[in-house]
Design brief:
Number of strands: 5
Order of helices and strands: HHHEEHHHHEEEHH
Shape: elongated
Distance between the termini: 87 Å
Oligomer: single chain
Number of domains: 2
Helix content: 40-55%
CATH architecture of the largest domain: Orthogonal Bundle
Length: about 270
């Protein structure tokens, strides 16, 4: 009888552990990662690929490697990044906390691993760089596209923002021409480049030199410039223009330099 009760208890515990986790589909996972700001949107498909390769997108997955080490959760995080039974490791987190369906701690630790451990290569199972193709890009567009997700500025709207940020009306035609050809006036445009940097926002500012992903940095000391509010993008672009001139943007040289500039004479912006 005692053995039967023990068996029942073990079954109940197993059932509880199964229901405490969640297996994500690709689009809900992409949205969750984006809402937790794991990285720029241009790399979320890479994260989705990594997660599926590591855990099958199962938040409750635990993989026992040996007597001394196990991998936990949707990112399969292990020592030395976390500690078993208590907070610790480089993430100062308890490994077992990665086994629930709240991804907040998982994402915070994954970002630390990415930044300190050599990017995606920190995960031994990483085989996704070549696999992220047009299909993945289309998936991200379908997952993340939503009304109001990004803003396409009109010429006059951008002129107003340029005036508010101290750019003289004399030069606004150059800035608007630049934005039209770099981003189509799309404030949230992100373009991933082969060197693993990205160009961000309405002026397509590069993360290698001028800003950083997920933290402040670069020559502008700013992060993630692809937002509806273009204030920081304008401020960083002013720094670029002051240090390098408009020639820093290849498309300005090709499409704007010595060419007819956009007509903003009917806009109400002053400056």
């Amino acid at each position: 009888m005692t053995t039967r009760w023990i068996s029942c208890i073990l079954i109940l515990l197993a059932l509880c552990s199964v229901t405490s986790g969640k297996v994500y589909q690709k689009c809900p996972l992409a949205r969750a990662l984006d809402s937790l700001q794991i990285s720029s949107r241009s790399f979320i498909s890479n994260w989705v690929c990594l997660i599926n390769a590591e855990s099958g997108a199962d938040t409750s997955k635990k993989t026992v490697i040996n007597d001394q080490r196990s991998c936990y959760g949707i990112f399969q995080i292990s020592k030395p990044w976390c500690s078993e039974g208590r907070k610790g490791g480089d993430c100062n987190m308890q490994c077992e906390d990665f086994l629930n369906d709240d991804l907040t701690d998982d994402v915070e630790c994954a970002k630390i691993i990415f930044n300190r451990g050599g990017g995606f290569a920190a995960w031994k199972g990483w085989r996704c760089v070549q696999a992220v193709s047009l299909t993945a890009v289309l998936l991200m567009l379908l997952c993340c596209a939503a009304p109001g997700y990004g803003k396409i500025y009109s010429k006059c709207e951008l002129a107003k923002q340029l005036t508010a940020n101290g750019i003289s009306r004399t030069y606004q035609g150059h800035w608007i021409c630049l934005a039209m050809h770099e981003s189509g006036l799309n404030s949230t445009k992100v373009v991933a480049l082969p060197n693993l940097s990205s160009n961000y926002g309405i002026f397509q500012i590069n993360s290698k030199d001028w800003c950083r992903e997920g933290r402040k940095g670069g020559k502008c000391n700013m992060k993630y410039l692809a937002t509806d509010d273009v204030t920081r993008a304008i401020q960083c672009s002013k720094i670029i223009q002051q240090q390098k001139g408009f020639n820093e943007w290849v498309l300005w040289q090709k499409k704007c330099k010595g060419k007819d500039l956009p007509d903003i004479s009917n806009c109400n912006a002053t400056g």
